[in-house]
Amino acid sequence: MSIKGIAEKNELPIKILQFGEGNFLRAFVDWMIDIANENGAFDGDIAIVKPISFGSLDAFKEQNNLYTVLLRGKENGKVVNDSRIITSVSKALDCKDDYDEYMSLAKLDTLRFVVSNTTEAGIVLDKNDTFQRLPNTYPGKLTKFLYERYNAFSGAKDKGLIILPVELIEDNGGKLKECVLALSKIWNLPTEFLNWIEESNVFCSTLVDRIVTGYPRGYADKVCEELGYEDKLVDIGEPFALWVIESEKDISDELPLDKIGLPVVFTNNQKPYRERKVRVLNGAHTSSVLAAYLYGLDIVRDCMADDVMGKYIRKVVLEEIVPQVNLPIEEVKAFANSVFERFENPFIDHALLSISLNSVSKWKARVLPSFKDYVKNNDKLPKLITFSFASLLAFYSSSDLRDDGLYAKRANGDEYIIHDDKTVLEFFADNIGKDTFIENACKNTAFWGEDLSEYKGFVNTVRFWYEKLMTSVGEALNEVLG
User: Fold this and answer.
1) 328 vs 61, 297, 337, CA distance in Å?
2) Mean pLDDT throughout 406-410?
3) Which is it for strands 14-19 and 45-50: parallel, antiparallel or unpaired?
4) Backbone phi, then psi, for 476, in 5-degree steps?
5) What angle do CA 121, 263, 256 make, to 5 degrees?
6) Which strands, in side-by-side order, build the sheet including 205-209?
7) Whose CA is closest to 24, among 120, 91, 110?
8) Is there a single domain that holds both residue 368 and residue 428?
9) Distance separating alpha carbons of residues 158 and 201, to the nearest angstrom
10) Rg of the chain's alpha carbons, rounded to an integer?
11) 250 with 336, same domain?
12) What helix, strand, coil percent values describe the chain, rounded to 5?
């Protein structure tokens, strides 16, 4: 049986134009809007637009734009395995093949929001993009669409839109606005249009957080059997979600998702929330997975279940990272505990080696800020974060550089490949075995943006733990945990 025979769809006015038909938006934004519609808090549908030629919308048409979001994981100590049929999508269009219908959305009186997820590379200014039937870039397409709307309503001030990009770049709303204004000038669009962009449209910067694994390739038949119907668009994610929306104008009354208990935060400054996510969630990964892999573990869930690594992760996060985040301590602790539950997700096999990609730049972005704040606030080195730096050096310890990466081995003889920038791999391959290796690594300002050897005792402490790790990772972990 098809999903079309299971659910009924009530057509609502289209309020949201969504650039992107991918897994994340469907299991995040569209899921939230579906819940809001069910609660009578939004009463609006979504028109999905596929912004690139790659991919097909056939499954949307076959299923009347219906699909299932399956949330699996742990929440508040309990295993979650919930399904919801999403009915909030009214249309799914190809902006090229369905161009006229796509552009007619600009003339909809009910349209109020634009959501996008065109990847980090999507919000880029291409000065060579042209004001043709369909511009090449997402900023170009959005600019053309807004200009169509501006003309359709004769520049009415109340017909501007609220723009909500969720691409994973900092200040995504601000950067998208800069691109739109720049293209408007390059294309010699009227000054009045630029003023309308500035005065009548709201470009929000957002932060999103939810792991979405998408379509269950390899076991879709089993999932559909459990659901009791066929669904070619079934979308799997974790229960945890967070959407932080930053804007100069308060838009919470128009998008009252928080008022019905959805995990949405409206703020005029998302920086602390971004810092919390990067330091706690990403920092927990980067400060632990390299030692964990050398210890003999392979996936995040097994780290949490292991007595030694589980203790290490909780200790580095709660004692050295959480206190440095600029938000109320209890709020950050609660977030940290939710992160631990996410790491324990029984449905997701999150490989440590996949997290290890580009660990040098990740340590700088995710862990170094907590290290610096800890030193500043405590006038001493953070024991476990310093140990994580030594673990990074131990993980990268090899001179076997090949075309596809730096080859190394665990203590049990398992070979693994380290993937990072070429200059990073060349540094380790050239310096391993030298008496000055530890000092050279600490002093490498190209990696860390500063000379870490200037922190009192850092080089000697890193050397101490590095030598322990190279002898026995298990003994080093037990010793550092004291």
Assistant:
1) 47, 34, 15
2) 98
3) parallel
4) -65, -45
5) 95
6) 205-209, 242-246, 264-267
7) 120
8) yes
9) 9
10) 25
11) no
12) 50, 15, 35
C-alpha–C-alpha distance, residues 288 and 369, integer Å: 16
Domain boundary residue among 268, 294, 316? 268
Instruction: Give the whole-angstrom CA distance, residue 21 versus residue 63.
Output: 14
Residues 466-475: tens digit of each pLDDT:
999 999 999 9
The DSSP element (H or E) to which 16 belongs, if any, is: strand 14-19
Among residues 268, 296, 314, which one ends one of the domains?
A: 268
Q: H or E stretch including 32? A: helix 29-38
What gap in Å lies between CA 158 and CA 155, rounded to an integer?
9
Query: How far is Cα of residue 65 from the mean position of the Cα atoms in its chain?
Result: 25
Are 186 and 233 part of one and the same domain? Answer: yes
β-partners of residue 244 are 207, 265
Pairing of strands 78-86, 242-246: unpaired
Contact yes or no for 477/291 (Cβ under 8 A): yes
Domain range enclosing 389: 272-481
Share of the chain above pLDDT 70, in %: 100
Looking up residue 305, the CATH number of its domain turns out to be 1.10.1040.10
- Indicate the pLDDT class of residue 168, thresholds 50, 70 and 90: confident
